[in-house]
Protein backbone atom coordinates (compact mmCIF):
# COMPACT_ATOMS: atom_id res chain seq x y z
CA UNK A 1 0.00 0.00 0.00
CA UNK A 2 2.84 2.37 0.91
CA UNK A 3 4.67 1.56 -2.34
CA UNK A 4 1.47 2.16 -4.33
CA UNK A 5 0.93 5.51 -2.60
CA UNK A 6 4.53 6.60 -3.24
CA UNK A 7 4.31 5.47 -6.86
CA UNK A 8 1.05 7.39 -7.36
CA UNK A 9 2.58 10.51 -5.78
CA UNK A 10 5.66 10.27 -8.03
CA UNK A 11 3.45 9.97 -11.13
CA UNK A 12 1.41 12.98 -9.96
CA UNK A 13 4.54 15.11 -9.45
CA UNK A 14 5.96 14.11 -12.85
CA UNK A 15 2.63 14.87 -14.54
CA UNK A 16 2.36 18.28 -12.85
CA UNK A 17 5.98 19.18 -13.72
CA UNK A 18 5.52 18.23 -17.38
CA UNK A 19 2.25 20.19 -17.46
CA UNK A 20 3.98 23.15 -15.77
CA UNK A 21 6.80 23.15 -18.34
CA UNK A 22 4.40 22.92 -21.29
CA UNK A 23 2.05 25.63 -19.99
CA UNK A 24 4.92 27.96 -19.04
CA UNK A 25 6.71 27.63 -22.40
CA UNK A 26 3.38 28.04 -24.24
CA UNK A 27 2.62 31.15 -22.18
CA UNK A 28 6.02 32.66 -23.05
CA UNK A 29 5.65 31.90 -26.78
CA UNK A 30 2.10 33.33 -26.84
CA UNK A 31 3.26 36.37 -24.85
CA UNK A 32 6.10 37.08 -27.30
CA UNK A 33 3.82 36.71 -30.34
CA UNK A 34 1.19 38.91 -28.68
CA UNK A 35 3.57 41.72 -27.69
CA UNK A 36 5.17 41.69 -31.15
CA UNK A 37 1.77 42.61 -32.65
CA UNK A 38 0.29 44.42 -29.65
CA UNK A 39 2.93 46.52 -27.81
CA UNK A 40 0.88 47.25 -24.69
CA UNK A 41 2.52 45.40 -21.77
CA UNK A 42 0.30 47.09 -19.19
CA UNK A 43 -2.87 45.92 -20.99
CA UNK A 44 -1.48 42.38 -21.21
CA UNK A 45 -0.84 42.50 -17.44
CA UNK A 46 -4.36 43.77 -16.76
CA UNK A 47 -5.85 40.92 -18.83
CA UNK A 48 -3.82 38.41 -16.81
CA UNK A 49 -4.98 39.97 -13.50
CA UNK A 50 -8.58 39.88 -14.78
CA UNK A 51 -8.18 36.17 -15.60
CA UNK A 52 -6.89 35.47 -12.07
CA UNK A 53 -9.81 37.42 -10.56
CA UNK A 54 -12.55 35.85 -12.68
CA UNK A 55 -11.32 32.24 -12.82
CA UNK A 56 -9.84 31.76 -9.34
CA UNK A 57 -12.96 32.32 -7.23
CA UNK A 58 -15.18 29.60 -8.75
CA UNK A 59 -12.22 27.23 -9.25
CA UNK A 60 -11.06 27.49 -5.62
CA UNK A 61 -14.59 26.99 -4.31
CA UNK A 62 -14.99 23.91 -6.52
CA UNK A 63 -11.57 22.56 -5.50
CA UNK A 64 -12.16 23.25 -1.82
CA UNK A 65 -9.21 25.59 -1.24
CA UNK A 66 -9.47 26.67 2.40
CA UNK A 67 -9.83 30.24 3.57
CA UNK A 68 -7.85 31.78 6.39
CA UNK A 69 -9.38 31.53 9.85
CA UNK A 70 -7.28 34.45 11.10
CA UNK A 71 -8.53 38.03 11.00
CA UNK A 72 -6.31 40.33 8.94
CA UNK A 73 -6.29 43.87 10.34
CA UNK A 74 -6.51 46.88 8.05
CA UNK A 75 -3.12 48.04 9.31
CA UNK A 76 -1.53 44.72 8.34
CA UNK A 77 -3.40 44.79 5.02
CA UNK A 78 -2.00 48.18 4.04
CA UNK A 79 1.44 47.42 5.45
CA UNK A 80 2.04 44.12 3.60
CA UNK A 81 -0.83 43.00 1.32
CA UNK A 82 -1.11 46.26 -0.64
CA UNK A 83 2.67 46.52 -1.27
CA UNK A 84 2.63 42.87 -2.40
CA UNK A 85 -0.15 43.65 -4.90
CA UNK A 86 1.86 46.63 -6.13
CA UNK A 87 4.93 44.40 -6.50
CA UNK A 88 2.94 41.76 -8.41
CA UNK A 89 1.67 44.34 -10.89
CA UNK A 90 5.09 45.94 -11.45
CA UNK A 91 6.83 42.55 -11.71
CA UNK A 92 4.38 41.42 -14.40
CA UNK A 93 4.58 44.68 -16.36
CA UNK A 94 8.40 44.70 -16.34
CA UNK A 95 8.43 41.02 -17.29
CA UNK A 96 6.23 41.75 -20.30
CA UNK A 97 8.38 44.72 -21.33
CA UNK A 98 11.45 42.48 -21.21
CA UNK A 99 10.03 39.76 -23.48
CA UNK A 100 8.70 42.48 -25.79
CA UNK A 101 12.13 44.12 -26.17
CA UNK A 102 14.46 41.09 -26.06
CA UNK A 103 14.21 37.37 -26.96
CA UNK A 104 12.46 35.17 -24.39
CA UNK A 105 15.60 33.04 -24.02
CA UNK A 106 17.69 36.06 -23.02
CA UNK A 107 14.98 37.41 -20.68
CA UNK A 108 14.89 34.07 -18.83
CA UNK A 109 18.68 33.99 -18.63
CA UNK A 110 18.63 37.42 -16.94
CA UNK A 111 15.87 36.20 -14.59
CA UNK A 112 18.26 33.45 -13.48
CA UNK A 113 19.89 36.21 -11.38
CA UNK A 114 17.00 35.96 -8.88
CA UNK A 115 19.17 34.11 -6.28
CA UNK A 116 21.57 37.09 -6.25
CA UNK A 117 18.79 39.54 -5.42
CA UNK A 118 17.20 37.11 -2.96
CA UNK A 119 20.50 36.83 -1.05
CA UNK A 120 21.03 40.61 -1.04
CA UNK A 121 17.45 41.48 -0.06
CA UNK A 122 17.29 38.74 2.60
CA UNK A 123 20.47 40.16 4.10
CA UNK A 124 19.06 43.71 4.14
CA UNK A 125 15.47 42.92 5.17
CA UNK A 126 15.71 39.73 7.25
CA UNK A 127 19.36 40.04 8.38
CA UNK A 128 19.96 36.53 7.01
CA UNK A 129 23.56 35.35 6.69
CA UNK A 130 24.54 32.82 4.05
CA UNK A 131 27.31 30.23 3.93
CA UNK A 132 30.41 30.62 1.80
CA UNK A 133 29.09 27.96 -0.60
CA UNK A 134 25.93 29.99 -1.20
CA UNK A 135 27.93 33.12 -2.03
CA UNK A 136 30.29 31.08 -4.23
CA UNK A 137 27.36 29.64 -6.19
CA UNK A 138 26.41 33.17 -7.28
CA UNK A 139 29.66 33.53 -9.27
CA UNK A 140 28.65 31.31 -12.25
CA UNK A 141 25.24 33.03 -12.33
CA UNK A 142 26.87 36.47 -12.67
CA UNK A 143 29.42 35.15 -15.18
CA UNK A 144 26.82 33.33 -17.27
CA UNK A 145 24.47 36.33 -17.48
CA UNK A 146 27.42 38.61 -18.33
CA UNK A 147 28.53 36.31 -21.18
CA UNK A 148 24.94 35.98 -22.46
CA UNK A 149 24.55 39.78 -22.37
CA UNK A 150 27.81 40.50 -24.21
CA UNK A 151 27.03 37.92 -26.91
CA UNK A 152 23.28 38.62 -27.29
CA UNK A 153 22.64 39.49 -30.95
CA UNK A 154 19.27 41.13 -30.23
CA UNK A 155 20.41 43.07 -27.16
CA UNK A 156 18.21 45.94 -25.96
CA UNK A 157 19.06 48.03 -22.91
CA UNK A 158 15.42 48.64 -21.93
CA UNK A 159 14.79 44.90 -22.17
CA UNK A 160 17.76 44.16 -19.90
CA UNK A 161 16.73 46.74 -17.27
CA UNK A 162 13.10 45.53 -17.38
CA UNK A 163 14.15 41.89 -16.90
CA UNK A 164 16.34 42.88 -13.92
CA UNK A 165 13.54 45.03 -12.45
CA UNK A 166 11.01 42.19 -12.73
CA UNK A 167 13.51 39.82 -11.10
CA UNK A 168 14.01 42.21 -8.15
CA UNK A 169 10.23 42.59 -7.80
CA UNK A 170 9.70 38.80 -7.87
CA UNK A 171 12.46 38.38 -5.23
CA UNK A 172 10.72 40.88 -2.93
CA UNK A 173 7.42 39.10 -3.54
CA UNK A 174 8.95 35.77 -2.52
CA UNK A 175 10.35 37.18 0.74
CA UNK A 176 7.20 39.02 1.82
CA UNK A 177 4.77 36.34 0.59
CA UNK A 178 6.40 33.83 2.94
CA UNK A 179 5.92 36.25 5.82
CA UNK A 180 2.24 36.85 4.98
CA UNK A 181 1.55 33.11 4.62
CA UNK A 182 3.18 32.42 8.00
CA UNK A 183 1.43 35.33 9.75
CA UNK A 184 -2.09 34.80 8.41
CA UNK A 185 -2.34 31.07 7.64
CA UNK A 186 -3.73 31.91 4.20
CA UNK A 187 -3.63 29.21 1.55
CA UNK A 188 -1.04 30.21 -1.07
CA UNK A 189 -3.65 30.07 -3.86
CA UNK A 190 -5.95 32.36 -1.86
CA UNK A 191 -3.07 34.82 -1.53
CA UNK A 192 -2.60 34.69 -5.32
CA UNK A 193 -6.31 35.46 -5.79
CA UNK A 194 -6.23 38.35 -3.28
CA UNK A 195 -3.13 39.92 -4.83
CA UNK A 196 -4.46 39.56 -8.39
CA UNK A 197 -7.82 41.12 -7.52
CA UNK A 198 -6.29 43.94 -5.48
CA UNK A 199 -3.70 44.77 -8.17
CA UNK A 200 -6.49 44.85 -10.77
CA UNK A 201 -8.59 47.28 -8.70
CA UNK A 202 -5.59 49.49 -7.82
CA UNK A 203 -4.30 49.86 -11.36
CA UNK A 204 -7.56 49.99 -13.32
CA UNK A 205 -7.57 53.84 -13.22
CA UNK A 206 -3.89 53.91 -14.27
CA UNK A 207 -4.61 51.58 -17.20
CA UNK A 208 -7.61 53.70 -18.26
CA UNK A 209 -5.47 56.85 -18.30
CA UNK A 210 -2.33 55.30 -19.78
CA UNK A 211 -3.46 52.62 -22.27
CA UNK A 212 -7.20 52.84 -22.93
CA UNK A 213 -7.04 56.12 -24.90
CA UNK A 214 -4.31 54.72 -27.18
CA UNK A 215 -6.27 51.50 -27.68
CA UNK A 216 -9.44 53.39 -28.66
CA UNK A 217 -7.48 55.52 -31.15
CA UNK A 218 -5.83 52.40 -32.62
CA UNK A 219 -9.10 50.49 -32.89
CA UNK A 220 -10.66 53.41 -34.81
CA UNK A 221 -7.68 53.68 -37.17
CA UNK A 222 -7.02 51.62 -40.28
CA UNK A 223 -4.85 49.21 -38.29
CA UNK A 224 -7.63 48.19 -35.94
CA UNK A 225 -7.07 45.49 -33.32
CA UNK A 226 -7.46 42.14 -35.08
CA UNK A 227 -9.31 39.08 -33.86
CA UNK A 228 -5.91 37.36 -33.78
CA UNK A 229 -4.69 39.81 -31.11
CA UNK A 230 -7.89 39.41 -29.09
CA UNK A 231 -7.52 35.63 -29.27
CA UNK A 232 -3.88 35.81 -28.14
CA UNK A 233 -4.85 38.13 -25.26
CA UNK A 234 -7.50 35.68 -24.06
CA UNK A 235 -5.18 32.68 -24.46
CA UNK A 236 -2.32 34.47 -22.67
CA UNK A 237 -4.56 35.33 -19.70
CA UNK A 238 -5.80 31.73 -19.34
CA UNK A 239 -2.29 30.25 -19.71
CA UNK A 240 -0.86 32.64 -17.14
CA UNK A 241 -3.59 31.72 -14.64
CA UNK A 242 -3.10 28.00 -15.27
CA UNK A 243 0.68 28.35 -14.93
CA UNK A 244 0.23 29.95 -11.48
CA UNK A 245 -2.15 27.18 -10.38
CA UNK A 246 0.15 24.36 -11.53
CA UNK A 247 3.27 26.02 -10.07
CA UNK A 248 1.62 26.45 -6.66
CA UNK A 249 0.31 22.86 -6.81
CA UNK A 250 3.83 21.55 -7.41
CA UNK A 251 5.14 23.76 -4.59
CA UNK A 252 2.59 22.33 -2.14
CA UNK A 253 3.56 18.66 -2.61
CA UNK A 254 7.36 18.71 -3.02
CA UNK A 255 10.28 19.84 -0.87
CA UNK A 256 11.73 23.35 -1.35
CA UNK A 257 14.85 21.89 -3.00
CA UNK A 258 12.82 19.76 -5.43
CA UNK A 259 10.69 22.77 -6.33
CA UNK A 260 13.77 24.98 -6.85
CA UNK A 261 15.41 22.35 -9.08
CA UNK A 262 12.14 21.84 -11.00
CA UNK A 263 11.86 25.61 -11.47
CA UNK A 264 15.44 25.85 -12.80
CA UNK A 265 14.76 22.90 -15.12
CA UNK A 266 11.60 24.66 -16.29
CA UNK A 267 13.68 27.71 -17.22
CA UNK A 268 15.95 25.49 -19.37
CA UNK A 269 12.86 23.97 -21.03
CA UNK A 270 11.36 27.41 -21.73
CA UNK A 271 14.65 28.68 -23.22
CA UNK A 272 15.00 25.60 -25.43
CA UNK A 273 11.37 25.64 -26.63
CA UNK A 274 11.36 29.38 -27.40
CA UNK A 275 14.68 29.12 -29.25
CA UNK A 276 13.24 26.28 -31.35
CA UNK A 277 9.79 27.81 -32.04
CA UNK A 278 10.61 31.53 -32.25
CA UNK A 279 14.02 30.93 -33.83
CA UNK A 280 15.88 33.98 -32.56
CA UNK A 281 19.57 33.88 -33.62
CA UNK A 282 22.10 32.74 -31.00
CA UNK A 283 25.82 31.98 -30.97
CA UNK A 284 27.64 29.12 -29.27
CA UNK A 285 29.09 31.51 -26.69
CA UNK A 286 25.60 32.87 -26.01
CA UNK A 287 24.31 29.36 -25.29
CA UNK A 288 27.35 28.74 -23.06
CA UNK A 289 26.46 31.86 -21.02
CA UNK A 290 22.86 30.68 -20.60
CA UNK A 291 24.01 27.21 -19.55
CA UNK A 292 26.54 28.61 -17.06
CA UNK A 293 23.90 30.85 -15.46
CA UNK A 294 21.39 28.01 -15.08
CA UNK A 295 24.12 25.72 -13.68
CA UNK A 296 24.84 28.42 -11.09
CA UNK A 297 21.15 28.36 -10.11
CA UNK A 298 21.35 24.59 -9.53
CA UNK A 299 24.48 25.08 -7.39
CA UNK A 300 22.73 27.82 -5.41
CA UNK A 301 19.72 25.59 -4.74
CA UNK A 302 21.96 22.77 -3.49
CA UNK A 303 24.00 25.13 -1.29
CA UNK A 304 20.82 26.60 0.23
CA UNK A 305 19.46 23.11 0.90
CA UNK A 306 22.68 22.07 2.65
CA UNK A 307 22.56 25.27 4.71
CA UNK A 308 19.00 24.54 5.84
CA UNK A 309 19.93 20.95 6.77
CA UNK A 310 22.86 22.19 8.88
CA UNK A 311 20.59 24.68 10.65
CA UNK A 312 18.10 21.89 11.39
CA UNK A 313 20.85 19.74 12.90
CA UNK A 314 21.98 22.61 15.14
CA UNK A 315 18.37 23.20 16.24
CA UNK A 316 17.81 19.52 17.03
CA UNK A 317 21.08 18.97 18.92
CA UNK A 318 20.38 18.52 22.67
CA UNK A 319 21.89 21.05 25.06
CA UNK A 320 22.74 19.70 28.53
CA UNK A 321 22.27 22.25 31.32
CA UNK A 322 23.09 21.42 34.96
CA UNK A 323 20.95 23.18 37.55
CA UNK A 324 21.90 24.23 41.09
CA UNK A 325 19.98 21.37 42.70
CA UNK A 326 22.00 18.73 40.84
CA UNK A 327 19.31 17.96 38.28
CA UNK A 328 19.68 18.66 34.60
CA UNK A 329 17.62 19.58 31.64
CA UNK A 330 18.06 18.57 28.03
CA UNK A 331 17.07 21.40 25.70
CA UNK A 332 16.64 21.53 21.98
CA UNK A 333 14.60 18.37 21.38
CA UNK A 334 11.77 18.72 23.87
CA UNK A 335 13.09 16.22 26.43
CA UNK A 336 14.30 16.62 30.04
CA UNK A 337 16.02 14.03 32.19
CA UNK A 338 17.79 13.23 35.42
CA UNK A 339 21.57 13.94 35.61
CA UNK A 340 22.56 10.34 36.34
CA UNK A 341 20.29 9.01 33.61
CA UNK A 342 21.91 11.41 31.14
CA UNK A 343 25.38 10.27 32.19
CA UNK A 344 24.37 6.64 31.92
CA UNK A 345 23.13 7.19 28.39
Automatic annotation (TrEMBL):
<keyword id="KW-1133">Transmembrane helix</keyword>
<feature type="domain" description="Sugar phosphate transporter">
    <location>
        <begin position="12"/>
        <end position="301"/>
    </location>
</feature>
<dbReference type="InterPro" id="IPR037185">
    <property type="entry name" value="EmrE-like"/>
</dbReference>
<feature type="transmembrane region" description="Helical">
    <location>
        <begin position="242"/>
        <end position="262"/>
    </location>
</feature>
<dbReference type="Pfam" id="PF03151">
    <property type="entry name" value="TPT"/>
</dbReference>
<feature type="transmembrane region" description="Helical">
    <location>
        <begin position="77"/>
        <end position="100"/>
    </location>
</feature>
<keyword id="KW-0812">Transmembrane</keyword>
<feature type="transmembrane region" description="Helical">
    <location>
        <begin position="268"/>
        <end position="300"/>
    </location>
</feature>
<protein>
    <recommendedName>
        <fullName>Sugar phosphate transporter domain-containing protein</fullName>
    </recommendedName>
</protein>
<dbReference type="InterPro" id="IPR050186">
    <property type="entry name" value="TPT_transporter"/>
</dbReference>
<dbReference type="GO" id="GO:0016020">
    <property type="term" value="C:membrane"/>
</dbReference>
<dbReference type="InterPro" id="IPR004853">
    <property type="entry name" value="Sugar_P_trans_dom"/>
</dbReference>
<feature type="transmembrane region" description="Helical">
    <location>
        <begin position="133"/>
        <end position="151"/>
    </location>
</feature>
<feature type="transmembrane region" description="Helical">
    <location>
        <begin position="12"/>
        <end position="30"/>
    </location>
</feature>
<keyword id="KW-0472">Membrane</keyword>
<feature type="transmembrane region" description="Helical">
    <location>
        <begin position="189"/>
        <end position="210"/>
    </location>
</feature>
<feature type="transmembrane region" description="Helical">
    <location>
        <begin position="157"/>
        <end position="177"/>
    </location>
</feature>
<feature type="transmembrane region" description="Helical">
    <location>
        <begin position="106"/>
        <end position="126"/>
    </location>
</feature>
<feature type="transmembrane region" description="Helical">
    <location>
        <begin position="42"/>
        <end position="65"/>
    </location>
</feature>
